[in-house]
Write a structure and sequence with these properties.
CATH topology of the largest domain: Nucleotidyltransferase, domain 5
Strand content: 15-25%
Structural class: alpha/beta
Number of domains: 2
Largest sheet: 5 strands, mixed
Radius of gyration: 19 Å
Strand order of the largest sheet: 3-2-1-4-5
Number of helices: 9
Order of helices and strands: EEHHEHHEHEHHHH
Shape: globular
Number of strands: 5
CATH class of the largest domain: Alpha Beta
Distance between the termini: 69 Å
Helix content: 40-55%
């Protein structure tokens, strides 16, 4: 019997709001228990299903969440490397009190799995204990990663709800294709009031700023 950690992200692609990474630590024999909860890729679950499973997971297992705000994303040189940093932080926190081997499975955000894996590995504080596995679609193939996906998604949803309440504005999901988000961005991309929720490094915003600057020149 050994330990198993699953890690996944939520909110990597949106133009508004934070990116969230979550990790869940279990005994490897408990993965079937997570599967029986109904855990799978969070995108395949309803909001109600996600919420119910998330409550079971956080009540039953040790977990860790790391949030990257829009300013963190804008100031990072590379989103993949920022995610590697956050993933390693989760591994380090969940293994801090462990003195036994642990397998860590991460849903890899990069097309170059080998390079990204090395970035994470270099940041792990107990490399002698950690067996690192980075895969594409790990949230589909490993229930413990599915559980992490659900925890991350629910935390991002909570963060977005807080922002909507704070600003008294429904700006949608934050994804560029969302009509509510599109309308909000067009009207407010240059409004200092909303600076903390907008990812200015996204091409969606860069194009709007460029068009505004060109218009002002003429």
């Amino acid at each position: 019997m050994g330990k198993l950690i699953g890690i996944d992200d939520a909110g990597r692609g949106p133009v508004l709001g934070p990116m969230v990474l979550a990790g869940v630590l279990i005994e490897d024999s408990e993965e079937l228990e997570i599967k029986n909860m109904g855990a799978k890729d969070s995108k395949l679950l309803t909001s109600r299903q996600r919420g119910e499973i998330k409550e079971e997971v956080v009540a039953r297992f040790k977990y860790c969440v790391k949030v990257s705000e829009p300013i963190d994303i804008d100031e990072s040189d590379n989103l993949n490397y920022l995610e590697a940093i956050k993933a390693a932080m989760i591994v380090n926190e969940l293994t801090e009190d462990l003195d036994e081997s642990v397998k860590v499975v991460i849903d890899c955000p990069s097309v170059n799995i080998s390079s990204w894996s090395m970035d994470v590995q270099k940041l792990i504080k107990k490399p002698e204990l950690v067996s690192l596995v980075c895969e594409h679609k790990a949230d589909l193939n490993h229930p413990v990663v599915s559980a992490a996906s659900i925890v991350a998604k629910e935390r991002r949803e909570d963060e977005m709800k807080k922002l909507r309440r704070e600003f008294g504005t429904d700006f949608g999901s934050g994804y560029p294709a969302d009509p509510k988000t599109k309308d909000f961005i067009k009207e407010n991309f240059d409004n200092p009031k909303y600076r903390k929720i907008i990812r200015f490094s996204w091409n969606t915003i860069k194009r709007l700023l460029k068009a505004k600057n060109q218009k002002s020149l003429f």
